[in-house]
Amino acid sequence: MSNKLTHEEQEALVISDDPEHPANLISELCREFYKLGWVTGTGGGISIRQGENVYLAPSGVQKERIKPEHIFVLPFAQSSVPKPGSKRDFLRIPSKKGLSESQCTPLFWNAFTMREAGACIHTHSQHAVMLTLLHPRDAQSFKISHQEMIKGVRIGGVGKTLSFFNTLEIPIIDNTAVEEDLTESMAAAMEKYPDAPAILVRRHGVYVWGNTWEQAKTQSECLDYLFEIAVKMLLAKLPLVGDN
Amino acid sequence: MSNKLTHEEQEALVISDDPEHPANLISELCREFYKLGWVTGTGGGISIRQGENVYLAPSGVQKERIKPEHIFVLPFAQSSVPKPGSKRDFLRIPSKKGLSESQCTPLFWNAFTMREAGACIHTHSQHAVMLTLLHPRDAQSFKISHQEMIKGVRIGGVGKTLSFFNTLEIPIIDNTAVEEDLTESMAAAMEKYPDAPAILVRRHGVYVWGNTWEQAKTQSECLDYLFEIAVKMLLAKLPLVGDN
Amino acid sequence: MSNKLTHEEQEALVISDDPEHPANLISELCREFYKLGWVTGTGGGISIRQGENVYLAPSGVQKERIKPEHIFVLPFAQSSVPKPGSKRDFLRIPSKKGLSESQCTPLFWNAFTMREAGACIHTHSQHAVMLTLLHPRDAQSFKISHQEMIKGVRIGGVGKTLSFFNTLEIPIIDNTAVEEDLTESMAAAMEKYPDAPAILVRRHGVYVWGNTWEQAKTQSECLDYLFEIAVKMLLAKLPLVGDN
Amino acid sequence: MSNKLTHEEQEALVISDDPEHPANLISELCREFYKLGWVTGTGGGISIRQGENVYLAPSGVQKERIKPEHIFVLPFAQSSVPKPGSKRDFLRIPSKKGLSESQCTPLFWNAFTMREAGACIHTHSQHAVMLTLLHPRDAQSFKISHQEMIKGVRIGGVGKTLSFFNTLEIPIIDNTAVEEDLTESMAAAMEKYPDAPAILVRRHGVYVWGNTWEQAKTQSECLDYLFEIAVKMLLAKLPLVGDN
Q1: Which of A98, A193, B181, C70 is spaced 20 to 30 Å from C223 by Cα?
Q2: Which residues form the active site (chains A, B, C, D) (predicted)?
Q3: Which residues of D64-81 are buried (b: 16+ CB within 10 A; e: fewer)?
Q4: In A18-89, where does DSSP find H-type helix?
Q5: Which tens digit of pLDDT belongs to each residue from C38-62?
Q6: Cα–Cα distance between C190 and A187 in angstroms, integer?
Q7: What single string gives the DSSP state of each residue in B152-214?
Q8: What's the pLDDT at B4?
Q9: What are the DSSP calls for A187-205, one per residue?
Q10: Which pTM does this prediction carry?
Q11: Rounded Cα–Cα distance for residues D72 and D45 (Å)
């Protein structure tokens, strides 16, 4: 760890009276996501990039009980990409014993570097997982159109909002044994589908990003709504695309 | 903007210790509606008309995080109908940068002018949307009878309450690319179905109104209950009308 | 109204620091029941009998917003049974304009007089209503066995708890246009099924009672659980009785 | 009762300012579990073993209203196994009249003695019960694989976490009339399936344990998620094992 900050400087990175400080937001939003069923059983989470700093929740902890002092802070500029096995630079590591940064770190980085996202949310929502299960094993993507909630989703997650008549398409990638091993296939899907605002992971969940935490959150809500109604439509044998 | 009020007079329109002040109610009710799944992803909302003032939430923001100072106030008497492309008179515009009034404004106005409603609620409830999806493409309305919850709904949304033996009928209109473009078709449906307490919008949601915010809210709850049970009944192949 | 109490004496009947005072309990429990979906749209509620006093919520109001000062108090001993058209004696009528006592009053009285219940809960739970809809039109009762949650239900609602191997049976009566008109048929069903802990009302909801508010509440929860799982079992074509 | 502690020493066992004290945790967690639908109608609960002390909630009470002073404390070392009919040693019995310790006591003890667990959770989750109902009557266990949430579950509930490619197997035992009578069959299933992190009880619910309360809780969440999605998959005729 190449951290040169004093203990006081490190603490100042996460302790703030401002409810919109990333360390406070991550704690609050994880509590909200827990209520939505997105991050039960320590799964899922959110990372926020503010300027040159990236704020990360710890791995494998109860997400609804995170406190600001549990937050990791990394410089966005890393000496190497924070992929599996690579070295990672930290600005702050929580003093609480046994915490390690989110296993989703390199996946969040995909959103930050490839889409210049300001925040990335990962959920284990059952709607996302059931949707992948209801797709054929070899389906490459999920498509839906003619839904008002599509209008809350941005092209590529960070561009202009979609229209009611647009078809939203989200790639589905296979899950891997280790979360970090999704890094390459997620990046490949993001390159192949530049307009996609999210990546579905079969039998696992979804990654959603946005320019800001607000946009990442509201797009996560719109997409989760669409995943849920798509599951209902598939079970009722209604077509997802078109206005029948 | 023909606003002649001072900044202090404008602020006084929305800052109040009274929890039943429209600006406080809109903030509180939007938080409640969020928990019900009615206004996720910035969708939906509520407008309250009190005397000659109309209170509106901003467009495209997280509805569960609205504060009273984010509320727009318009005179009910407008120099022209606040339809797409028309000028709108304001009494107060929030000082926070980037806020614009709800895109549902002309639709709320339909309820205020055609039904003399005191409040109008718009939700993206999945029960409403699934109900429209389970109706044939050319269905003009949704009908249900013999449900206790029908008794909580008023004729035309503002008249006497329905009886258990009445058949409730709610028109279904097609969605449009831009929310304001629903204005004419919603008005036409309200004219054709004078007894209807709400308008369903296919693949989008529902508009519900009442004499007061309490009546708009309780009718929204009764209708959402009926939409939900109607979806369950249709999936179980039970008839919606009659007492079989 | 034969009320001889002074205004101060009347207020003392409902204003208390004790969270277990019936007027406080009714307000709190209605908020809880709202979250469970039992009393949306002004429907449903709870009445508590404490000694010779009966505490009642108002009719047609938002149940999750009831305050202790909105509570009616009646003497349990009435000059005539508080049935439709009959006179009712009050100890306290809320001073807030426009409130009238719950339309369920004579139905709650059935539980108080026929079962010596200390509390009676009425819900519009969709699980109860769907269950009645999934029963044949001429079914007289709902039966279920071999469910752990049956053990939380008492014989007749006020006797010994049932065993896992007992078959729980709850009569289903037809709904009527006016709630009070259910009085006779509910009483007849309670006489015919002396062991039943509740009465289901087709296309309407359920009445559940107990010796105390705690027993009425926990039995309402057990029964609602059983209604919900019974609906799921019927839709999955699983038999409700027996251990297949 | 072989209790030699003074009243003050007994109270000191459960009254603490530390939110992580077992008596505070049991109260808080039962409120949380109630919101999840795991402990409605007085069912279910959690026991925590801390060093040589075991903390137990009372039997047959509203689990969401438990206070620290309602908690029983037993020495982990008992003069005999706390099975049906056996004597039990207590360190503290609540002074509130009518409370008796959880009927699950010997089942919790199974987890403490056979797995050296630090906490054991029992829920009546409908997902667990529906899952047992959707299995053939003679099925001995539930199996699932290829789900990300499997990675939150530990071998035997207390060992290493499972991999995405592992098949999770949980035995299903028959329910009995009296909860304590499950003791032997639960122990037998735990011996036969040493890797199982939980025991499903047909038509009843599930027992889940872990090294700590945090692990018992997060594993209960992961398993409940898996039970829920398994029910959805069975209803949609999707295989639970394999990656089709």
Answers
A1: C70
A2: 148 (proton donor/acceptor)
A3: bebebebbbbbeeebeee
A4: 22-35
A5: 999 999 999 999 999 999 999 999 9
A6: 66
A7: G-BGGGTSSBPPTTSEEEEEEE---SSGGGGHHHHHHHHHH-TT-SEEEETTTEEEEEESSHH
A8: 80
A9: HHHHHH-TT-SEEEETTTE
A10: 0.97
A11: 13
Confirm if C55 and C40 have CB atoms less than 8 A apart.
no
> Is D221 within 8 Å of A40 when comparing Cβ atoms?
yes
Residue B187 pLDDT > 80, yes or no?
A: yes
B222 is in an annotated binding site: no
Q: Is B148 a catalytic residue?
A: yes
pLDDT of C186-196, one tens digit each?
Answer: 999 999 999 99
**D–C contact: 3+ Cβ pairs < 8 A:** yes
pLDDT surpassing 50 at residue D186: yes
Q: Coil, strand, or helix at residue A26?
A: helix
What dihedral angle (degrees, nearest 10) is formed by the CA atoms of B100, B106, B108, B113?
140
CA dihedral B232, B235, B239, B241 (to 10 degrees): 40
Residue B21 annotated as binding? no
A20 and A55 Cβ atoms separated by less than 8 Å: no
Q: For residue D87, how many other CB atoms are within 10 A of its CB?
A: 10
Q: What is the dihedral of CA A96, A97, A100, A102, to 10 degrees?
A: -50
How would you classify residue A44: left for phi > 0, otherwise alpha for psi between -120 and 50, otherwise beta? left
For chain D, give the mean pLDDT.
95
Angle of helix C213-235 versus helix C22-35 axis, rounded to 10: 20
Q: Which ranges in D146-237 belong to alpha helices (H)? A: 183-192, 213-235
Helix (H, G, I), strand (E, B) or coil at B90: coil
Task: Find the catalytic residue in D8, D11, D148, D228.
Answer: D148
Q: Residue C230 to residues C195, D7, D16: CA-CA distances in angstroms? A: 20, 47, 43
pLDDT surpassing 50 at residue B1: no
Kindly determine whether residue B222 and residue C176, on different chains, have CB atoms separated by under 8 Å: no
- The residues, ordered by sequence, that sit 6+ positions from B102 with a Cβ below 8 Å of its Cβ are B45, B47, B56, B57, B58, B59, B72, B108
Q: Could you give the CA distance from residue B36 to residue B228 in angstroms, rounded to a whole number?
A: 12
Interval C70-85 mean pLDDT: 87
Helical H segments across chain A, by residue range: 7-12, 22-35, 105-115, 126-134, 183-192, 213-235
Cβ count within 10 A of residue C180? 17
d(CA D151, CA D166): 9
Instruction: Report yes or no: B59 at the A interface, CB cutoff 8 Å.
Output: no
Q: Which residues pair with D198 in a beta bridge?
A: D208
* D28 vs A: CB within 8 A: no
**CA–CA separation, B151 vs C110, rounded Å?**
23
Residue D62 has pLDDT above 50, yes or no: yes
